[in-house]
Write a structure and sequence with these properties.
Blueprint: E1 5-6, E2 23-26, E3 31-34, E4 40-41, E5 56-57, H1 58-62, E6 71-78, E7 85-87, E8 94-96, E9 103-105, E10 109-114, E11 118-119, H2 126-138, H3 145-153, E12 158-191, E13 194-222, H4 229-234, E14 244-245, E15 255-256, H5 263-286, E16 290-319, E17 322-329, E18 335-337, H6 343-367
Parallel strand pairs: 1-6, 11-16, 12-15
Antiparallel strand pairs: 2-3, 3-4, 5-16, 6-7, 6-10, 8-9, 11-14, 12-13, 12-16, 16-17, 17-18
């Protein structure tokens, strides 16, 4: 039987050696800070050079043959509304889902999963993330003023580490297709009763075949279903070169979401991405002016992966019975979210446009 190690995010307490209060990871200082006395503590082993991040074997994971040190178990809250799985501490018995603001009273279950290998630490604090969000809201036309005010004055944003998979793979592909070369034929066409000579493009096709190879490094796949994928895709790019080997210290004062996209499903999405890139490589290899691809056969080997955590500042606001969610990349400050609309602002803009159009028309009539 595999021994399962237990990791409880809220139970990773780092007491201050001066006052005994809990330390919290401070993005601005990149170290642990005591909110009570201001004492700081460096994170041991900080820096990739100290601890290189090791990939895990994909086939071993599918066959449940990963070393026991790579597996853990956490308590999770599963939201009945959006199905998010947010890790809880041992003293937590009730919570509000940070992804959709749904109140949830738990009995919670446990989530047995592959441990994170790396984390991209928060680089922006809550105040900076909130500023980015309110600036973004301020640039939205027709956004309800009440929602903008509520977001500015509302609760603090929550810092959450969102789970992702990364995949590496070596690929070798054989293809068949056709190379198209454009040439021109002179043809006579009639225009306005007169004959005109024109150059008409034609394509000459020739059979093509060959091989392409590509090594894929860190193909990124979201391992969560809690946020719309269009939000998380729009938060890219992520600076994966800045990943740090996983340490619970980075999570002090933050929450982490458990993955809900299993490893095999994550690889299927990564493979779709790889296939699109390979098809692009094939077309480049075929060359010519146009390309037709008839078949591609790909051998894939040496597949490895990592479970990583990426930082997101999240706000879920209920406004007039509807939940609006806003997410901020905790590393770059890029913002995405639901786009709210104010019916009154839209109506006013339409009426104003009609008045302006009417005034222009009236002025034109007078000038005639």
């Amino acid at each position: 039987m595999v021994h399962v190690q237990t990791r409880d995010i809220q139970e990773h307490r780092f007491p201050c050696d001066q006052c005994g209060a809990d330390l919290r990871f401070d993005p601005a200082a990149s170290k642990l800070i005591c909110n009570h006395c201001g004492n700081g503590a460096l994170i041991e082993g900080l820096g990739r050079s100290a601890q290189p991040i090791r990939e895990l074997d994909f086939d071993a994971a599918l066959n449940a043959q990963l070393p026991e040190a790579e597996i853990e178990e956490t308590r999770v809250l599963s939201c009945p509304n959006c199905a998010a799985q947010v890790e809880l501490g041992g003293a937590d018995h009730a919570a509000e889902c940070p992804f959709c603001a749904t109140p949830v009273v738990t009995g919670t279950g446990t989530h047995r999963h592959i441990k994170p290998k790396a984390v991209l630490p928060f680089a922006l604090d809550e105040r900076t993330a909130r500023g980015a969000m309110t600036d973004w809201l301020g640039r939205l036309w027709f956004a309800p003023t009440g929602l903008q005010d509520y977001a500015r004055k509302g609760r603090k944003m929550q810092g959450i580490y969102v789970p992702y998979w990364t995949f590496d793979a070596d690929t070798k592909s054989r293809y068949t297709g056709e190379r198209g070369t454009i040439y021109y034929e002179t043809q006579t066409v009639m225009r306005d009763g007169k004959a005109h000579k024109v150059q008409v493009p034609k394509t000459r096709w020739r059979a093509a075949s060959g091989r392409v190879t590509r090594f894929f490094d860190d193909v990124l796949v979201l391992a969560s279903k809690s946020l719309p994928k269009r939000f998380t895709d729009a938060l890219e790019p992520w600076d994966l070169a800045a990943l740090e080997p996983y340490s619970p210290a980075f999570l002090a004062g933050f929450r982490a979401e458990g993955y809900t996209v299993e490893l095999q499903s994550g690889f299927a999405e990564a493979r779709n991405h790889m296939d699109r890139v390979i098809e692009r490589d094939v077309k480049f290899d075929i060359g010519g002016d146009r390309q037709r691809v008839h078949s591609i056969g790909t051998d894939i080997c040496d597949v490895t992966f990592k479970h990583i955590l990426l930082p997101v500042w999240l706000a879920a606001y209920k406004y007039r019975g509807k939940t609006y969610r806003f997410v901020v990349n905790g590393s770059t400050g890029r913002v995405q979210g639901e786009r709210p609309y104010s019916i009154w602002k839209i109506t006013f803009a339409v009426l104003l446009g009609l008045i302006i159009a009417g005034a222009i028309g009236y002025g034109a009539a007078l000038s005639q």
